Amino acid sequence: MTTTLTFDATPAADAPTPKRRIADDTALLKAAAELTREYSTANPRIYWTDFLASAGIGYAALVATILAGSVGWAIAFGVVAVLALYRAESFIHELTHMKHSTVPGFRAGWNALIGVPMMVPSFMYEGVHNLHHARTRYGTVDDPEYLPLALMKPWTLPAFILIAALAPIGLIIRYAVLAPLSLLSPKLREAVVARYSGLVINPEFRRRSPEGEAKALWTKQEIAASLWAIALVALVATGVLPLRAFLIMMGIASAVAVLNQVRTLVAHLWENEGEPMTVTAQYLDSVNVPPPALLPGLWAPVGLRYHALHHLLPSVPYHNLGIAHRRLCAVLDPASPYFKANYKGLPGLMWKIGLSSITRGAKR
């Protein structure tokens, strides 16, 4: 959902040489293109097994959290629920890139089990995330998923993370209140579509109304999410769903949103000032956290630990990114720019981005 927090995006006076001036590395792009052809086929068995297991464990842990007889067990089950549901929800990223004919029914299954119950149906990402991968849009004001966070005031980083905690409340308002009311007001409907129908971080982004097949899918998903949100509110208001259970559900959903926002914070270096960048420059502004680090498998699941590589190979399914990474490491020269986007873990990345914000953003 679009944030309503507006950030000061003016670059600092002593910002480094813009990455847009970095020339494309021919050897890197050629090797990546060859791997795209070799590893671009999705494996339906991997997708369904991984997704269904994640969703099943997540919901089972959610129920266990609600029924837990002690705080200790509730916290333990809650952590499992957050991690598993976060992994299941992260498949929305794959939905935006896959050829749906290769994994039949996956979009419908994901929306039925995760998208609608979590109130993040896939239309909120499909048709939006692909703009982030457009060569002329990445890092510009037209990119829905980019802000020069490393060049902003230091307070924007904690605000960027904490605002995500309000996402579940915002989504209930979006689907239980604004969606029905927008049917009565064309002006409100226009605002809902433009400002509150995308999982974006750029407050200046305005979404266009869908057309054709995309509009039909949007309508079905929005109706389902709206009915679920209204039913959820009604169940709580009538006491059918205990308030304690509802608050636990909201808390876990909030934790999932915060975890994803932390992952988003370290997915890029956020150093571009708004100008178009070369593909290599876009890669260097993005982040890989490859093995041997283990924790990225939890906070950057479903291939998101290879986010920089994904910008080189957007059509490669998540289960092949690790193989592609190892192949590139083996064939590229050690001096290749490819290795400059690989980092060790979350603490170092947060320190790097935070330090950049403190040293450059604070001087505005």
Fold and architecture overview:
This protein has 364 residues and is mostly helical. It has one domain (19-363). The chain has helices spanning 26-39, 44-67, 71-89, 91-95, 106-115, 129-132, 156-162, 167-182, 186-195, 212-237, 243-265, 279-284, 296-299, 307-312, 318-331, 346-360. Helix 2 packs antiparallel against helix 3. The radius of gyration is 21 Å and the shape is globular.
Based on secondary structure, the structural category is mainly alpha
The description of the largest β-sheet is:
none
Regions with little confidence, pLDDT below 50 for 5+ residues:
1-17
Radius of gyration: 21 Å
Number of separate structural domains:
1
| Secondary-structure element string | HHHHHHHHHHHHHHHH
Give the beta-strand count. Answer: 0
Portion of residues within helices = 55-70%
Shape: globular
How much of the polypeptide forms β-strand, as a percent range?
Answer: under 5%
**N-to-C span:** 29 Å
Average pLDDT confidence is 91
Count helical runs: 16
List keywords for this structure.
364 residues, disordered N terminus, transmembrane helix, membrane, FA_desaturase_dom, Fatty acid desaturase family protein, transmembrane
What is the secondary structure topology, with strand pairs?
Blueprint: H1 26-39, H2 44-67, H3 71-89, H4 91-95, H5 106-115, H6 129-132, H7 156-162, H8 167-182, H9 186-195, H10 212-237, H11 243-265, H12 279-284, H13 296-299, H14 307-312, H15 318-331, H16 346-360
